[in-house]
TrEMBL record:
This is Rieske 2Fe-2S domain-containing protein. Gene3D superfamilies: Rieske [2Fe-2S] iron-sulphur domain. The keyword Iron applies. Residues 14-120 form the Rieske domain.
Length: 132
């Protein structure tokens, strides 16, 4: 019996939003992806002038972290906080600096800004959601 055909990997950058939609240390843009062919969520935010992106999944227990839609930063807008476990992550690199997953890191999503548009780049693990 022949093996099922796997869909080809998509590696081209995917448009996400206008660069102006991501205010410095403001609300994140949350978006759907496929992680290892399973539904998942990711987010992008602007931190210290740079757009950073991660899977919306705590390194301690794989649960979504935003405490309200698109809100990941603590009150001082310094750390990404998991609303479930209180783990604190460095926004610039995703490393857990406090809480139950100290030393682990968020799964990064590669981001780009070109001509006023934000894009994310799929890889072998993270792919766009297939069109309906």
């Amino acid at each position: 019996m022949p093996e099922p055909t796997r869909p080809a990997l998509i590696l081209e950058p995917q448009p996400l939003c206008a660069a102006s939609d991501l205010a410095e240390r403001g609300l994140a843009q949350v978006f759907d992806v496929q992680l290892w062919r399973q539904p998942a969520r990711a987010f992008a935010m602007r931190f210290d002038g740079k757009v950073v992106g991660y899977l919306n999944r705590c390194a301690h227990v794989p649960t979504e972290m935003d405490w309200q839609a698109g809100q990941f930063l603590d009150q001082d807008k310094r750390w990404i906080i998991c609303a479930i476990h209180g783990a604190a992550y460095e926004p610039a690199n995703g490393v857990c600096v406090g809480g139950p997953c100290r030393g682990k890191r968020l799964h990064p999503v590669k981001m780009h800004e070109v001509d006023g548009q934000v894009f994310w780049s799929p890889d072998n693990d993270i792919q766009p959601v297939a069109p309906a």
